[in-house]
Write a structure and sequence with these properties.
binds cytidine-5'-monophosphate; TIM Barrel; single chain; eight-stranded parallel beta barrel; alpha/beta
Length: 232
């Protein structure tokens, strides 16, 4: 896979117009667009359908976490939109992930499970009663997702090696929390550079603010692609 196909841009903007402007500038430069809850709430499935219709790959990142029956229905609806990737929270548990995996078509959309949000650290996990250290929890949740026949996980670049070791080379590992050297961390607690994430074995890198808030988003994406190519 070339660098472009591995770069996913998070369209974390409040309006469909801003999303469309970003897509105009970034189509052909990056491999996939991620639609999360902010944009989905503003623009809905129509925007997702429009992206798919113009030939773009879409990661619908709504991180479902509900009872198994509801999540299976949500995942089915996402697949019918023609997206390439859809995700659930691994913390929803084995039965929920199995129901989601069972609702996937044989081909096309792939299912990911979010292990531990890249904004969490050991303190914020303890606050919600999760006493494991971050790496043990990520390992546990990745193995649970693997056992539930989910296609891969969303995790911090720092955890890729342990996921690869636990779940093998064919398990898809998608990493947000990517920050080029010198960029602001924002709310990402467990970040890494694009080159470090690739070297660690990530399949796809998700980048939001370092690209979408840049004065020239395409130039920022190209700089990240150059760094990714250098790491290959
Ligand atoms: O702007 P930034 O590069 O931090 O954006 C990262 C994107 O990845 C956001 O859209 C965020 O919702 C998403 N994400 C994340 N951590 C996860 C799963 C998804 O940051 N564990």
């Amino acid at each position: 896979m070339n660098a472009r196909d591995r770069l996913v841009v998070a369209l974390d903007v409040p309006t469909p117009e801003e999303a469309a402007a970003l897509v105009e500038r970034l189509a052909g430069v990056v491999g996939m667009f991620k639609v999360g809850s902010q944009l989905f709430g503003a623009a809905g499935p129509e925007l997702v359908r429009a992206l798919v219709a113009r030939g773009e790959k879409v990661f619908l990142d709504l991180k479902y976490h509900d009872i198994p029956n509801t999540v299976a229905g949500a995942v089915s609806a996402a697949c019918r939109l023609g997206v390439s990737l859809v995700d659930v929270h691994a913390l929803g548990g084995r039965a929920m992930m199995e129901a989601a995996a069972g609702a996937m078509p044989a081909m096309g959309t792939r299912l990911l499970a979010v292990t531990v949000l890249t904004s969490h650290d050991v303190g914020s996990l303890a606050e919600v009663g999760l006493a494991d250290d971050v790496t043990s929890l990520v390992r546990r949740l990745a193995l649970l997702a693997y056992a539930a026949e989910v296609d891969g996980v969303v995790a911090s670049p720092q955890e890729v090696p342990l996921i690869r070791e636990a779940c093998g080379k064919d398990f898809l590992v998608v990493t947000p929390g990517i920050r080029p050297a010198g960029a602001r961390a924002d709310d990402q607690a467990r970040a890494a550079t694009p080159a470090a994430a690739l070297k660690a074995g990530a399949d796809l890198l998700v980048v939001g603010r370092p690209i979408i808030e840049a004065a020239d988003p395409a130039a920022s994406a190209r700089a990240i692609l150059r760094e990714m190519e250098g790491a290959a």
